[in-house]
Amino acid sequence: MSSIYELQCNECDFKQSFWSLYGAHFYRLTNDLEIPILIDTGWCDQCNKVVMAEKLLSTAEIESELERCGVGKKYALGWWGENGYWRSLRMSLLWSNKSLSREAYILAVQSIREWRKTRRCPPKCLSCSSVHVQSIPIESAFPHPRCSGLISCTEFFMASTVWDIKQYSAEGELIANAE
Ligand SMILES: [Zn+2]
Ligand SMILES: [Zn+2]
Fold first, then answer.
1. Do the Cβ atoms of 7 and 152 come closer than 8 Å?
2. Percentage of the chain modeled with pLDDT above 70
């Protein structure tokens, strides 16, 4: 799913059309497991515009999901129902494996826990890999980092589109020529 936003500063001539794409960015971890990237919107100093960036899951969020789906728990409740990151993980495991067992899901969440423990870099811009990216919820107006104006944002449609899947390393670097 994607949305298109028109961003405009009320003081300078800054204008940007911003496409947000969800479900197109994955980490390729060393064991060849593909893990969806939790997406944030932010201002990248290097790109000098609004970008999609990584949002790093907290250890507490990962532990809580492991607890929720752990042995002896009735994970069926909310298994497909709720939205958000964990649902997108289940969807991507299902698409790549054609089936999804509880064991496979727990293994994937454990791999995410291992990745998070060893991840060193702060969140990166998914376009240019800069770490100079500041999280911004673009649904409401925000100060333009390049002037004293405010950038307002209009979402003008959502579309289901076909897009290129992009793969990133565990440290958030784009892997070139990923299939
Ligand atoms: Zn401005
Ligand atoms: Zn950037």
1. yes
2. 87
Q: Among the bound ligands, name the one nearest to the CA of residue 9.
A: 1
pTM: 0.86
> For residue 160, what are its two tokens?
């289901």
Q: What are residue 27's DSSP bridge partners?
A: 35, 168
Compute the distance from residue 118 Cα to the ligand 1 centre, in Å. Answer: 38
Q: What is the distance in A from the centroid of ligand 2 to the CA of 32? A: 26
Q: Which residues are CB-neighbours of 9 under 8 A, at least 6 positions away?
A: 15, 144, 147, 149, 150, 151
Sheet holding 39-44, edge to edge: 49-54, 39-44, 133-135
Q: What residues does each domain of the chain span?
A: 2-168
The whole-angstrom separation of Cα 34 and Cα 174 is: 14
pLDDT in tens, 105-136: 889 999 999 999 999 999 999 999 999 999 99
Beta bridge mates, 54 = 39
CA of 46 to the centre of ligand 2 (A): 5
Q: Which ligand is nearest to the CA of 16?
A: 1
CA 135–ligand 2 middle distance (angstroms) = 12
User: Which ligand is nearest to the Cα of residue 52, counting in written order?
Assistant: 2
Which ligand has the nearest atom to the CA of 131? 2
Q: Which residues pair with 154 in a beta bridge?
A: 6
pLDDT at 147: 96
